[in-house]
Amino acid sequence: MITIQETEIKERGLLGVKQARELGRPILMSEVHKMDTTNPLSFFNTGKDHYCGERFFWKDPTNEMVLIGLGTSKQFQSDQAADRFFHLEKEWKSFLKDSFIFNDYKVDGVGPLMFGGFSFDPFKEKTDLWSKFADSLFHIPKFLLSIVQGETYLTTNIIFTPNDDLSLYSKSLEERNQLLHSLRNNRNTKSPSLIRKDEVSPDRWKQTVDGVVDELTHGPLKKVVLARELRLVFNSDVEAESVLENLYTQQPASYIFAFESNGDCFIGASPERLIKKQSDEVYSTCLAGSISRGQTVEEDQALGQTLLADQKNLKEHGYVVEMIKGALEQSCKEVILPDHPQLMKMRDIQHLYTPVIGKCGPNTSLLLLVEKLHPTPALGGLPKTSAVEKIREVEQLDRGLFGGPLGWVDYQQNGEFAVAIRSGLIQGDEVSLFAGCGVVADSHSEEEYLETSLKFRPMLRALGGR
Fold first, then answer.
1. Radius of gyration of the chain (CA)
2. Distance (Å, rounded) from C-alpha 45 to C-alpha 183?
3. How far is residue 122's CA from residue 145's CA, in Å, rounded to a whole number?
4. Do 438 and 378 touch, CB atoms closer than 8 A?
5. E strand or H helix that includes residue 32
6. Is 79 helix (H, G, I), strand (E, B) or coil?
7. For 294-322, how does the pLDDT look when each residue is reduced to its tens digit (9 = 90+)?
8. What is the model's pTM?
């Protein structure tokens, strides 16, 4: 339990009520308390009864940052295609203005933050598949558990409106106490059985790849990334808690994420950072070019060396490096990266990988960096605008949040976004999985099809399929 003196409760409550009435608009009051170590999965699971549909989960590949949000204090959403990054930045800063933040800990990811994501392409024609998610959707949680470098913090976010009185603050604290008390109760999750696996138009997808290869051979496009969908049907509803637990165990070196909206849950284990900002430094990742893992150490090393020497994959990787370096140079005083890629080895697949560090000014906007980097050539293609237009024209799939930037920004304007790949959309007893591959002039549709099949594996395993 977190104990606050009665006089402090009254003082803080009156502050919020007074400010909201004087300004005539909603006011955020956020307070942070340090806690004993708490299992992050238990905290997420505890929220199922009262906050289902309003939860998120985030873990970075190093396990230095775990964020779990329950409930929604404030939501930012927009289906406006133009300037969505700029408008979100403006809304976020405006909302934080005149807020009360009681936080004694100068730690990123602690205190008020918003978590969410952007769709891959807001100009793509919408389908029912992603009807529960807007093109830009972010939540400020009621309760945020932050585990940062082994230390645990709980942020409580309360929004006072001009019509609220002192009781709102007391009710929020009581709600928090009930939540913390229920952490002691373990919840058993179940895994339903997979009864059907539907490849969505595989022959048509291969024909699309062949058509794009022909255009790449005779036109100005260098690369186009094409994605496809695998639809799974189970004998009962799929529980996000169970899938999340499997991903957490099976893919420890990935970004593990879950983001709920109106009953659907977008969930995955992505190996790819888009951008991270800590004060005046930013970090990005060039990830493109892939091959399977070997059955033995020797076979695995041989496959890795094959990838490091493969001209098609090196060329594809080079496009990503070139683009990310160029985008960061627009905002950074210095950009540092190695001359040659290395290998990033995941459970099922290994990638060509180049880390990038940028030195920027303290007022550099994380969200506008996201806008410059999205989509990288690893998810869109080159040239960027022409490739996205080609995807919009020929791809059957409505990608929604798949391949888009997903992550968080705190009130100090620090945060991190991953590229939302190796992911799926849970909808009751059905799940859609998504995977893409980079198509270049010497691509072969059957090989690209097999590559996407390999990329389905992490989510299939987490769902209990093969």
1. 23
2. 9
3. 31
4. yes
5. strand 27-35
6. coil
7. 999 999 999 999 999 998 889 888 888 98
8. 0.93
DSSP string, 173-210: HHHHHHHHHHTTS------PPEEEEEESSHHHHHHHHH
Angle at the Cα of 51 from the Cα atoms of 68 and 70, rounded to 5 degrees: 20
Q: Any residues with CB less than 8 A from the CB of 193 and at least 6 apart, and which?
A: 234, 235, 464
Which residue is catalytic, options 31, 54, 245, 272?
272
Q: Which residues in 38-190 belong to E strands, given as ranges?
A: 55-59, 65-70, 74-78, 100-102, 113-118, 136-140, 143-148, 151-160
| Angle at which helices 6-23 and 167-182 cross, to 10° | 130
Quick check: 154 and 68 in contact, CB under 8 A? Answer: no
Instruction: Note if 276 is an active site residue.
Output: no
Q: Read off the pLDDT of residues 2-57 as tens digits, 9 standing for 90 and up.
A: 666 667 778 888 899 999 999 999 999 999 999 999 999 999 999 998 999 999 99
User: Which residues in 279-383 belong to E strands, given as ranges?
Assistant: 281-292, 332-336, 342-345, 349-360, 381-382
d(CA 388, CA 124): 10
Q: How far is CA 119 from CA 78, 79, 224, 406, in A?
A: 11, 10, 18, 9
For residues 49 and 181, what is the distance between their CA atoms, to the nearest angstrom? Answer: 14
CB 359 within 8 A of CB 264: no
Of all residues in the chain, the percent with pLDDT exceeding 70 is: 97
How would you classify the pairing of strands 223-234 and 430-439? antiparallel
Residue 272 bears catalytic tag: yes
The residue with tokens 């490096």 is 321
What type of residue sits at position 47?
A: G
Tokens of 173: 């604290």
Residue 316: name the closest of 241, 391, 379, 234 by CA.
379
List Cα–Cα distances, 310 to 98, 314, 341, in angstroms: 55, 6, 12
Across-strand partners of 25?
none
- Distance between first and last Cα of the chain: 43
Residues 82-101, mean pLDDT to the nearest whole number: 94
Q: Are strands 423-427 and 415-419 parallel, antiparallel or unpaired?
A: unpaired
Which tokens go with 386?
């022409």
CA–CA distance, 79 with 136 (Å, rounded to integer): 6
Task: Determine the distance from the C-alpha atom of residue 414 to the mean position of all C-alpha atoms in its chain, rounded to a whole number.
Answer: 15
If phi > 0 it is left, if psi is from -120 to 50 it is alpha, else beta; for residue 324 that is: alpha
Q: Are 156 and 145 in contact (CB under 8 A)?
A: no
Find the catalytic residue in 59, 74, 132, 223. Answer: 223
Q: What is the pLDDT of residues 173-204, one digit of tens each?
A: 999 999 998 886 666 777 899 999 999 999 99
Q: 104-130 pLDDT, tens per residue? A: 999 999 999 999 999 999 999 999 999
Tokens of 51: 């906050």
